Amino acid sequence: MKKMFKKVMLFFFAVAVLAGCNDKPISSELPEVAATDIVFKASGYNEGKDFKVIRGQTVIVQATVYPKEATIRTVTWASNNYDLEVTDLGNNKAQLKVWDVGTFELTVTAGEYSEILPVFGVTEIMPQSISVPTEIVEVRENTRVEVDVKLLPEDATNPGINVTISPLVTAKPNNIIEEKVKLTR
Predict the structure, then answer these.
(1) Residues 150, 128: contact at Cβ < 8 Å?
(2) What φ, ψ does residue 5 adopt, rounded to 5°?
């Protein structure tokens, strides 16, 4: 019985030793997750539309790396032209300043993944008219009415505009009013 017990114990010991002999080292490192997308947020930037920056002005751009599990989440910024000045502000933010009119490329990189954001340096585009997207508005002499209006053209770069409609002009939804409209700063 003792011989049988010794053989069984020797067998289990051999199995334990062989099971512990694995030629792959045990690693505590997590697998690397590559970035697959970078999303931008900035004043005046809407995905799918031209990103226009007025010559001489600065804009802050925020980048978010996806997926959220990406190993490298910090981005680097680079411009293809000295007329697009890029200053890294940390925390995936950068300040852009456009020195001239033209088309520039802002390259944003997270690890091996890069994305290019086209930046258009423009001169100021003044609004030419307005569109009234709401209900009928009638403005009578010596009265004041606040109405949400859309400046046209849509890529007008100066949002600090006051709109004055001359008295007795009827504005209907989606009508474009060009006559008797005064656009001032």
Answers:
(1) no
(2) -60, -45
Q: Give the pLDDT band of residue 185 (cuts 50, 70, 90).
A: very low
What domains are defined for the chain?
37-122 (2.60.40.1080), 129-184 (no CATH)
DSSP letter for 157, please: S
Q: Where are the alpha helices (DSSP H) in 66-174?
A: none
CB 108 within 8 A of CB 76: yes
Alpha helices in 72-169 (DSSP H): none
Burial group, residue 114, by CB count within 10 angstroms (0-12, 13-18, 19+) = middle
Question: Cβ contacts of residue 46 below 8 Å, gap of 6+?
Answer: none
Give the integer Cα–Cα distance in Å for 63 and 66.
10
Per-residue b or e along 81-113, where b marks 16 or more CB atoms closer than 10 Å to that residue's CB: bebbebeeeeebbbebbbeeeeebebebbbbeb
Residues 119-140: pLDDT tens digits?
A: 999 887 666 666 766 556 666 6
Residue of 120, 116, 115 lying closest to 103 (CA atoms): 120
Rounded distance, CA 58 to CA 78, Å? Answer: 16
The answer, as to whether pTM is greater than 0.70, is no
